[in-house]
């Protein structure tokens, strides 16, 4: 049985339709403003690996187009009262971005490497995910009445912002334990053999090795009470969509990724294979949380799908501590934790008992409080 959306959710959806011009204007203006800031302060706001490959003519054209579109939509929102306050804010922010130099801010190269925030990564990823998943979820929604701005979206967006802005910290915390503590386990002959394989084979092997490791880590986070306090944050979402997967406590993210990277480092997969795997895992993590009704039965035994992972988030005793795999569901079959009813989706999502409080700041400190667990 599918969950019914609440009256409040239907009201949010109706409000979103009325405010659509203002919402889109403010969204584009915000991204454009972020981009202009990145042009002004590339050494502290941009990711070195990304800025080295940016096609700057295209980037500048997108920034200019974003400013123009934000201003035009903001003016229409004000004129047609389709979220006029948001439209006015979007219009003002677009003008501010243009007055700050717009798309034509000069960047002195080469840009010096320094400690940085990933504002460019945040803006780029947010733009791509919204452009891809919001239309798909509207067209093929499992819960058509669930609005884009459903309950808890602000909390999830705060997690999205934090994880992307702190990309350097997360990357450093992910890689350092393997480099420092497990360098002794690296065998050059094995690493050369692994890195010499075809890229596609390395990609599949990396996903398999990572999923076996993450299965163990994930199951441990469920089984050990003080670790569950951190992971319960992820399960506290009561509505799933493309943004819900971002709700992860920072210590949960760092521990899971750091432990998952160890065997990848020890085995010596080529950088290109690791980069391809990171793209794969990011895309799949977004997809399996999405509000999508798609179901290809032939995929169920092969890869983790939205229905499989939605049952992992179910507030249902029968589904508790099931479906830990991220990529391959047969791993759960192998270890006796597979749960996928022949038909149907979860009726509710969330934590069965001792749920974390709502709100980003409250959730960050909750695992450390006496009230947790």
**What fraction strand?**
under 5%
* Helix-strand pattern: HHHHHHHHHHHHHHHHH
- Shape call: globular
Q: Based on helices, strands and strand pairing, what is the structural class? A: mainly alpha
Task: Profile the largest sheet.
Answer: none
Fraction of residues in helices?
A: 55-70%
What distance lies between the first and last C-alpha atoms, to the nearest angstrom? 30 Å
Q: What is Rg?
A: 22 Å
Number of strands: 0
Tally of helical segments:
17
Give an overview in words.
62% of the residues lie in helices and 0% in strands. The chain is an all-alpha fold. It has two domains: 7-150, no CATH class; 167-368, no CATH class. The model has no long low-confidence stretch (mean pLDDT 92).
Structure at a glance:
The protein has 373 residues and is an all-alpha fold. It contains 17 helices and no strands.
């Amino acid at each position: 049985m599918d969950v019914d959306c609440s009256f409040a959710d239907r009201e949010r959806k109706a409000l979103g339709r009325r405010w659509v011009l203002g919402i889109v204007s403010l969204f584009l203006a915000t991204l454009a403003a972020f981009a202009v800031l990145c042009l002004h302060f590339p050494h502290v706001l941009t990711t070195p690996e990304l800025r080295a490959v940016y096609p700057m003519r295209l980037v500048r054209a997108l920034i200019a187009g974003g400013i123009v579109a934000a201003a035009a939509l903001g003016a229409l929102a004000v004129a047609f009262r389709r979220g006029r306050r948001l439209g006015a804010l979007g219009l003002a922010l677009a003008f501010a971005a243009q007055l700050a130099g717009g798309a034509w801010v000069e960047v002195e190269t080469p840009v010096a490497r320094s400690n940085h925030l990933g504002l460019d990564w945040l803006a780029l990823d947010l733009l791509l995910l919204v452009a891809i998943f919001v239309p798909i979820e509207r067209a093929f929604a499992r819960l058509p009445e669930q609005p884009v701005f459903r309950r808890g979206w602000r909390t999830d967006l705060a997690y999205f912002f934090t994880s992307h802005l702190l990309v350097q910290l997360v990357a450093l915390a992910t890689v350092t334990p393997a480099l420092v503590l497990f360098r002794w386990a690296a065998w050059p002959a094995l690493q050369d053999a692994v890195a010499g394989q075809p890229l596609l084979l390395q990609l599949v092997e990396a996903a398999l090795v990572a999923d076996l490791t993450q299965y163990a880590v994930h199951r441990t986070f469920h089984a050990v009470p003080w670790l569950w306090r951190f992971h319960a944050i992820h399960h506290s979402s009561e509505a799933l969509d493309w943004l819900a997967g971002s709700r992860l406590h920072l210590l949960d993210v760092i521990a899971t990724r750091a432990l998952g990277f160890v065997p990848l480092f020890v085995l010596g997969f080529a950088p290109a294979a690791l980069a391809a795997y990171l793209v794969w895992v990011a895309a799949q993590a977004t997809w399996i949380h999405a509000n999508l009704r798609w179901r290809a039965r032939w995929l169920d035994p092969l890869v983790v799908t939205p229905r499989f992972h939605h049952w992992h988030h179910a507030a249902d005793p029968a589904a508790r501590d099931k479906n830990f795999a991220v990529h391959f569901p047969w791993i759960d079959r192998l270890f006796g934790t597979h749960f996928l009813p022949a038909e149907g989706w979860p009726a509710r999502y969330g934590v069965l008992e001792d749920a974390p409080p709502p709100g980003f700041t409250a959730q960050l400190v909750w695992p450390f409080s006496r009230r947790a667990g």
